[in-house]
Design brief:
Elements: H1 16-30, E1 39-45, E2 51-59, H2 69-78, E3 83-89, H3 99-115, E4 118-125, E5 130-132, H4 138-143, H5 151-193, H6 198-205, H7 209-215
Parallel strand pairs: 3-4
Antiparallel strand pairs: 1-2, 1-3, 4-5
Helix pairs in contact: 2-3, 6-7
Length: about 220
């Protein structure tokens, strides 16, 4: 069910206070009916934060609400929203995120990534207060979670990390080799200036004459 904004509501989201200002009024309106039930809303926005829609996704019981990920993103896809914010109320008045709240957020982050729609934040609200997952850094923690990442993506990520480590290791080894060659060149040139022959330098350094000439770039 789409929620209509009033003339008093902002149309552009700049911070979480803007989100709560809008949703607090909506909650107070909807609290007149189904007061003891959890409501789940989604705000869809463009990249500039302009609100494209606000929709009531689900109406649950007094302590939980079931969410299907595609119901959350269905309208977002249809209305070309690139960013969304999830909001739900706790009739108990508690702002503490439940395990279920964290789990659905984790799932929605991954579905959003597949659809190229960013889940910006998840707010828990009451008529007088709110909690932002982003502000308490829970959102950032869940964004790192691998719980709902497809296995092939995890494997791909591991392979990329392995490749990156191998490339960094190779770069370090090349730098060490380059430094060692430079030091040998300095030593050889110093010996040549003292009149030591290339053959004797080769014997002292226990390398071939060709190798000495290679270090000198001959």
């Amino acid at each position: 069910m789409e929620i209509k904004l009033t003339k008093h509501d902002k149309r552009t989201i700049e911070d979480t206070d803007d989100v709560y200002g809008i949703m607090q009024r909506i909650l107070l309106r909807e609290n007149k009916i189904d007061r003891e039930k959890e409501h789940l809303w989604i705000i869809g926005m463009n990249q500039g934060g302009y609100i494209l829609y606000i929709e009531l996704i689900a109406l649950g019981s007094y302590h939980s609400v079931d969410v299907e990920p595609m119901n959350v993103f269905r309208v977002a896809v249809m209305k070309n929203a690139s960013r969304v914010i999830l909001i739900h109320n706790h009739p108990s008045g508690s702002l503490t995120p439940s395990d279920s709240d964290k789990d659905i957020t984790d799932r929605l982050i991954q579905v959003g990534r597949i659809l190229n729609i960013e889940l910006v934040d998840h707010l828990i609200i009451t008529p007088t207060m709110y909690l932002s997952f982003r502000q308490i850094e829970l959102m950032q923690e869940l964004e790192k979670s691998l719980k709902y990442v497809p296995t092939y993506q995890i494997i791909e990520k591991i392979r990329k990390e392995e490749k990156k480590i191998a490339e960094e290791k190779l770069a370090v080894e090349k730098e060490k080799t380059k430094k060692a060659e430079s030091e040998k060149r300095i030593l050889i040139n110093a010996l040549l200036e003292k009149g030591v022959s290339v053959e004797d330098i080769a014997r002292i350094m226990e390398i071939t004459v060709r190798r000495v000439e290679g270090i000198l770039g001959r």
